[in-house]
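Lecture 7 notes. Example A: sequence first, then its structure tokens.
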Amino acid sequence: MQERTPVIKEFIRQHADLFWYIPEDKKENISDEILVEFILNYGDMKAVIDLLNLFGVEKTKNIFEHTLQISPRRAGNYNEMTVNFFQHYFRRHAH
């Protein structure tokens, strides 16, 4: 389990409704992969921008791409349009 900074914990609390199925006492310790997946899939534009500012474009891209490569089932957790959009976005904005 990852240790979270107060800033990341606050970000998760602000978007806790996106993690509806995770018990309240476990939300602050979700993995980076789950955090990125849910914010990119279900967050609004402000949440996405805040995530990119929090993790940086490069780290967010690496987490996103790693999750897509873990398994077809994990890749299937992303909406098809989300994958398409962020593949283009990261190709343009990440190194």
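Example B, a different protein, same format:
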Amino acid sequence: MNSETAMRVVAFYACLTLLSQTMASLPCYLTRATENGDNEHAKDHPLYEILSLVPNDYQTSFEWRESSMAQILLEGEAYARVIQDGAGRVKALDQLASHRTYPFWTGERMAYRHTPESGGTIYYLNSEILRLPNFSTDLKRKALSVVQYHRQTIGRSIASNHYQSRLLKNAAVPKGAIKTPNDLSPEAVQTLRKQWNERHAGPENAGNVAILYGGLEWETIGLNHEDMQYMEMEAMSLNDIARMFHIPPHKIGDLTRSTNNNIEHQAIEFITDTMRPWARRWEERMELSLLSRAERLQGYKITFDLNALLRGDSAARAALYRVLFAIGALAPNDARRLENLPKIQNIWADETYIQTAMAPLSKIMDVLMRKGPSQSAPSEDDKSGAA
């Protein structure tokens, strides 16, 4: 069992591409904390362009992350060589082949051994490598891949696919058979088959009434119990593969248990239970390898925007924006930014608003219980003026 064999399983390939492409499509930003506690995009930092647009001179950000995620799932880990300029700032991320790169523990720190296709061996220090591992209980060693963790499940699915291919190859299961009480010579069998095909084969003969004589009987042939078990096994394998990736089956085309009522919640669960842990793993690993300790203390962070997956339909977004605007949580330009619309060049578009017609009940009672001007006693100035 290897990665190429596993990728021939349709369900496995669907899960692999779904996770890789979803991870690659998430907006990735370098942000920094401001004095008022907000986070702003650090567009003036060299790392911002590397993460958002071009990690190197031969890959886009989407391609680099898609390939890295696929390597994590297939090989256990993904690696990139951190190329720095003379000032020690990251200027590129050069992707390394996972199956040619191995981490090892020197006794004090991590190091990496890489064997290029051209031959030889290159050793890298921990500070020179961005390491993105799969789940592991011991990161002093190379993490295992999904294929290594679930060889038996994937193998069972491959065996089921092979069985069905053999079963259905060249229509190996006929729709029916003609039974006869007497033995027929080979010549008689051929004659009977030829006559039957001439009268009933082809679309022009569809629906013709068959007339059987001489004790002949028609018997319909279907899949036997063993065949049906293999068919059920394939369906079980699909769900097992979806479970090993923590993916709802409907995301890879199995709508058996999905309804209009639960499919939206399953889509949200995919984001919160599947993609959020992966995003967090990537964020912390990149912050550890690409940001200095001083930059981390200054409030620099690497963030994947999961809100891009939670946008929903236009009506739902509009309703959410109305509610957030009404309670003063969202300014007009905030909503336009979330919709990728240009900013309104007006200071009032950056203000937040609340409905002044509404007030706490306790304040309203204070107003109602307060005495009016005609009921209040005149002040000393009023008295002197009256005199």
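Note on Example B: The longest strand covers residues 77-84. DSSP finds 14 helices and eleven strands in the chain.
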